[in-house]
Amino acid sequence: MTIDEVSPFERPNVAVTLSSLRDATPRTLTELTHSTGLSRPTVEDALARLIELGVVEDGAPAARAGKVGRPARLYRFRPEAGAVLGLDIGEHRIVALLANLTGATLARVSVPVAAAASGDERLALVRTAIRKVLAGADRDRSHLWAAAAGTSGIVDPDGRVVLSHVLPDWTGRHLGSQLRRSLPCPVRVENDANLAAVAEHWRGVAVGVDDVVYVHASHRLGAGMLIGGRLHRGFGGAAGEVGGLRMLHWDEAARYLTHQVHNADGEDRDDAAERVFAAARAGDPAAIEAVEEFAHDLASGIAAMVLTVDPELVVVGGRVARAADVISDPVERRLRALCVRPPRVAVSILDDEAVALGAVRAAISYVEEHIFRL
């Protein structure tokens, strides 16, 4: 299944040929010769290897209007040759996305989970989501080439949750190892806001922008950042954890928002926040004041990161993104007051799928780097 199965001498030619086919657009041998810069016999040998590995197919000849002679054959990357899995392990739900090798979604599943669920209970529901999403696409675990999962907290490179204030019984859990016991493929575990930042750069409002701060704003606040187009995790995976600065009030900001106007006890804090935004939209003075205070605290944390990394773009995601009409102006006003060079601010269009979609992108990156050697 991997390019490592071909000889070291052939491997670079196989990789460059595969790279030219990765957009799944069928190409002729002549087109591939031009796009790779390789000789025709070399490309023929590389295609033979890729067909043998099952990732490229020799399709029907290309029709050539007005031309005589045997038509050229077409070669196509087979994204259906394998699948990747993206997981969002959150406080209230677990989202599983199954995609092919170009990232096209094959199935999606969302499984509710109680906020107070133990770590083992939450992990059992993750396994349930995996079974359901595979069944939804008529696949089994043997089709998986790589998987990635996003979760709340600081995560080390081995997939251990170093610290999580949100999920019970989560700090210290070797989530990567536990998922690897359930899946027959490599598994990467990452902070959820980091993966959401990756998703925005891949398919969201940050496409084509290399210096980005992503802020996950809902019943809790978190952040991830891209520098030079690459995820910046920091030395210990704690980059973006500005909520640790108590004077920024990020820990209290969302609670203040929901409790200032409504008694939100016993209800999902994201739902409560949406009711506050709706009241502000309708002109309720107390709700407007609460939104302004929330925006003030949110922008203060954003400014701390902006002044450090000077991003071109700040993306606001999470459930707060649904209230862009009431939250954007006060956030941008505060940033203009605090920042030497206020960045452009955009609201995420990925809604609740950002983390799982970023996990899919992370899994595809693993396939590209470690299996395809691109």
UniProtKB/TrEMBL annotation:
InterPro entries: ATPase_NBD, ROK, Tscrpt_reg_IclR_N, WH-like_DNA-bd_sf, WH_DNA-bd_sf. Residues 20-57 form the HTH iclR-type domain. Pfam families: HTH_IclR (PF09339), ROK (PF00480). One of its GO terms (molecular function) is DNA binding. Transmembrane segments: none annotated. GO terms for biological process: regulation of DNA-templated transcription. Belongs to the ROK (NagC/XylR) family. This is Transcriptional regulator. It comes from Phytohabitans rumicis.
